[in-house]
Amino acid sequence: xxxxxxxxxxxxxxxxxxxxxxxxxxxxxxxxxxxxxxxxxxxxxxxxxxxxxxxxxxxxxxxxxxxxxxxxxxxxxxxxxxxxxxxxxxxxx
Length: 93
Known about the structure:
- By secondary structure, the protein is mainly alpha-helical.
- It has helices at residues 3-16, 31-47, 53-61, 80-91, and strands spanning 66-68, 74-76.
- It has a two-stranded antiparallel sheet.
- The longest helix is centred in the middle third of the chain and has 17 residues, at 31-47.
């Protein structure tokens, strides 16, 4: 299973198993439940696979800085992770 799927599954589980005292640790819940949370997590990732129009608009307006490459081409210095975070931030509004 991917790191992202596990990260999302654990976040869902923490919310689902939390109460006024705290949350039940991931490794303390039955494996069958862990697999269920992973299935939900995979569905969540599948749902965000295709960005919305607003997300794409945010990716376009993310400021880019450029440098000249050794071969004379312009190289964008904006990191893909920064663009992704900006797009996800838009989706979470």
